[in-house]
Design a protein that fits this description.
Layout: E1 3-11, E2 17-26, H1 31-48, E3 55-59, H2 62-69, H3 77-90, E4 95-99, H4 106-117, E5 121-124, H5 129-135
Parallel strand pairs: 3-4
Antiparallel strand pairs: 1-2, 2-5
């Protein structure tokens, strides 16, 4: 079975780990779909539930950032899911997103890999050993 892994890390303003999630999503997706549709949308939905006040989403996929800033009009599945992301972001005036180099986003990538080697869905309040060295 094909699946894509996604990882999300919530850190406090000083960079300390608050929560993490790793999830494997069944399907055969392109890197853009995996980052834009799955990881961002899942992260927005996950963070939306605890109602965090100020959130900055860091993505290493520049093309996703560009599409979020661009006009709607893409009627494909990817376009519809990006529209969902924009809608969720618009509900939170203190939420924003920015592009970061992949090296800065390594925690999310390691969590995504964790979802590929473990149970399909993991949520944690303590940083897994696989990412602890990156938090120092």
């Amino acid at each position: 079975m094909n699946r894509v892994g996604m990882g999300t890390c919530i850190r406090e303003s000083q960079g300390g780990f608050l929560k993490g999630m790793a999830k494997a999503i069944p399907g055969n997706y392109s890197p853009v779909e995996a980052e834009a549709i799955m990881a961002l949308r899942e992260s927005l939905t996950w963070v939306h539930n605890p109602n965090y006040d100020k959130v900055i989403f860091e993505l290493d996929a520049k093309n996703v950032i560009d599409r979020l800033k661009g006009p709607d009009g893409d009627e494909s599945e990817l376009g519809q899911l990006l529209k969902d992301c924009k809608l969720i972001l618009s509900m939170h005036t203190n939420w924003s997103y920015t592009h970061v180099p992949r090296q800065v986003n390594e925690i999310a990538h390691r969590l995504a890999r964790l979802s590929q080697s473990h149970i399909v869905h993991i949520e944690c309040d303590v940083a897994p050993i696989e990412i602890q060295a990156l938090l120092n």
